[in-house]
Specification:
- The protein has 268 residues and is α/β, with parallel strands linked by helices.
- The chain folds into two domains: 21-133, Immunoglobulin-like (Sandwich); 147-262, no CATH class.
- Helix content is 22%, strand content 29%.
- It has five helices and eleven strands.
- The chain has a five-stranded mixed sheet, with no helix packed on it. A three-stranded antiparallel sheet has the order 1-3-6, with no helix packed on it.
- The N and C termini lie far apart (89 Å).
- 20% of the residues are buried.
Length: 268
Amino acid sequence: MNAKPILMAIVAMLCASIVHAQATFDVTVAPVGGAYRMFNRGGAAGDAPVPIAITAKSLDHAAHHVTVDLSATDFFGAATSWKPQLTFDVSDSADGVTQQTPFPVSPGYYQITLVAKDAGGSSADGWTDLGIIPPSHPGVRPDSMFQSNAPSHAPDDIAFLAAIGMKVQRQHFQPPVASKAKEWPATQPVLPLDFSKQDQAVEQAKAAGIWILPVVGYALQTQGVAGTTDLAHQLGMYGPPVDYAQYVNTWETILRHYPRHHRLRVLE
């Protein structure tokens, strides 16, 4: 039996399947705004729907008339009554077409899925998720210890912490030493410090109503070397410091740089 025709037929079928499976258009979905797709609603935050943006674009340089059906399930997988349908006339250019549809708000976690089809039978799907949470409450104490160890100062991170009501950001609190020397500057009683990035992080937290609980005590380090003892180097530890007087003086400089109007609290 000659297997060559059979193999050629299989290859032809596989190639045909691949060509048929190639997408001719693409559709994406995402909520607009929020902090990592978390939205405060209720109370002073109001009850405005969350806008959901859907973008459709051509992938084969041809025009498409696309119908998009959306649906949502809650945290437990139960379907909601939200089932909008949108239509898109997508041009043959690479530019996409975007529409928004409102998602009604009710506290909880939701997963949104979409199924899109065009007149030629091509299809695409996508999904996103979002959370609806109540606005943060000031609490009975202005200095609530509801806190996070999140180290990042990215704007989205700060917005997320504020959205969920975080009051305190516990974090390592050491500005970089302004030195690239490969040898420890042992002759300097106080190390030179670059406060620029840390000042910006403190102001961002302050603007979001979050104060910082600094973790102090680690040995200092330059860009080239850590100011720890030989034993600490061998054990991979962050201390003890190689020069206690220099260490204390430098940390005093760091903490005095932030007076109480920065809302930086130091536990004494």
